[in-house]
Write a structure and sequence with these properties.
Layout (H helix, E strand, L loop, with lengths): L1 H10 L1 H36 L4 E5 L3 H10 L8 E2 L1 H7 L4 E13 L2 E6 L9 E4 L9 E4 L1 H7 L6 E5 L5 E12 L9 E5 H16 L14 E2 L1 E6 L2 H11 L3 E3 L5 E7 L1 H44 L1 H9 L4 H33 L1 H5 L12 H33 L1
Parallel strand pairs: 4-9, 6-8
Antiparallel strand pairs: 1-11, 1-13, 2-10, 3-4, 3-11, 5-8, 6-9, 7-8, 12-13
Helix pairs in contact: 1-10, 2-8, 2-10, 2-12, 3-8, 8-12, 10-12
């Protein structure tokens, strides 16, 4: 029966291709949408959950979270380093990591922080920059590959496309490839960024009446990432630093804010979920269209197969076996289409890795979630249902005629 079904399908190539394509589109898009949303949510919340709170300049909470954890958007500004000292003396806090984002190297962002910020990241070559702040950098795998960097090489950073700093950095280490934005970032000791800008300030002091757009980075950070003893302390810390004003010895005032990164990221994901649901609705519409297309093709096949069915009945093939033949045919088409849809979603995941890497997320083509299997089984059932209904009606009509 299976061999005969395959031969019969070979004769009806056009109808088979139409069904496969219609199933491929709906199932492929639905599975891909679910997989990407699940992996992005897991990746983003995993990173956000590592820190209890982030303290930074007043402004957009989303911008502060995305800049410090995923290096997207520009920093909101700077705050005095004394905020870091205050947090380090806070009994509610277990870890304090200063963060500054300034300058670039060949278009790749430079982050000034401490070695603790790279905790958990593997070093491919060399080692982490030490705490002495002696102008060392650790570069991401993509930076090293694109720029041809090796341990021991010296690089010059730039404040803009035309302003290149004269103080060189030495490559101390190269990170293992992670598939995230860390691959495209240069990391250094916070003090190293201050020293570069101090040297620039000293040079400009000798040039009278010449203005420049460098911000005085000495003793300043863009944000402070904090881990607290427990979540309750994180909430109280956020409340304490909300709209807090810090004044430096020079008389400059800075307005602060503190956020719980997980809460901010959840809000962003909730907005993204609306887009995901729209995609699922479109997939449902396509599935309904698939059902109609498959039903029409089934009816057409029935009309053209009347002589074929009559001949099979004439030579003694029962109506049950004929029904089974058509069910096997559509089941084979459905299995091929669903398998192709799953394979297509994996290919798309492989190519989409760079697209979401700026959010600190790794998309793995090997990640499979049980709802994906349910989606594929549902689409398979839809592809077979019209034929099952038609064969059931034909069997009932055949029984009535023989009665």
């Amino acid at each position: 029966m299976l061999k005969f079904a395959l031969k019969n399908l070979a004769v009806k190539k056009v109808q088979c291709i139409l069904i496969v394509l219609s199933i491929l589109v709906s199932a492929g898009v639905a599975v891909l949408a679910y997989n990407v949303s699940a992996q992005v949510e897991r990746g983003i919340t995993g990173t956000a959950g590592y820190y209890s709170a982030i303290v930074g300049p007043a402004g957009s909470q989303t911008q502060l979270a995305m800049n410090t954890m995923y290096f997207t958007d520009a920093p909101l500004g700077t705050i005095p380093y004394r905020v870091v000292n205050e947090l380090e003396m806070d009994s509610r806090v277990t870890q304090v990591i200063p963060f500054a984002m300034a300058d670039s190297y060949n278009g790749f962002s430079i982050v000034g922080t401490t070695p603790d910020y790279l905790s958990g990241k593997q070093i491919k070559d060399g080692q982490l920059f030490d705490k002495a702040g002696d102008m060392q950098v650790v570069v991401g795998s993509t930076v090293a590959e694109v720029c041809g960097l090796h341990v021991g090489d010296e690089i010059l950073t730039s404040h803009s496309a035309t302003e290149v700093h004269k103080t060189p950095f030495t490559v101390a280490g190269i990170l293992e490839k992670t598939g995230t934005v860390y691959d495209k970032t240069v990391f250094t000791q916070l003090r190293s960024i201050w020293e570069v800008h101090e040297h620039e300030e000293e040079e400009h002091e000798h040039e009278e009446n010449e203005e420049h757009d460098h911000e005085d980075m000495d003793g300043m950070v863009c944000a402070v990432l904090v881990r607290t003893v427990n979540p309750t302390y994180a909430m109280t810390l956020v409340n304490d630093y909300k709209n807090k004003i810090v004044t430096t010895e020079e008389g400059h005032s800075y307005s602060l804010q503190a956020i719980e990164p997980m809460a901010v990221v959840r809000e962003v994901l909730n907005e993204a979920d609306q887009t995901k649901y729209i995609v699922f609705v479109l997939c449902a519409v396509i599935l309904v269209m698939n059902f109609a297309i498959i039903g029409i093709i089934t009816l057409l096949n029935t009309y053209h197969a009347k002589k074929e069915i009559a001949l099979m009945r004439l030579i003694g093939i029962s109506a049950g076996k004929i029904n089974l033949l058509y069910l096997i045919q559509n089941l084979l088409i459905g299995l091929v289409a669903v398998g192709a849809a799953f394979a297509l979603s994996r290919v798309c995941l492989a190519f989409m890795g760079d697209f979401v890497s700026h959010m600190g997320v790794v998309l793995s083509a090997r990640a499979v979630y049980w709802p994906e299997i349910l989606i594929l089984l549902g689409v398979l059932a839809v592809s077979v249902l019209p034929t099952a209904v038609w064969t059931a009606l034909m069997a009932r009509r055949d029984s009535a005629e023989n009665a």
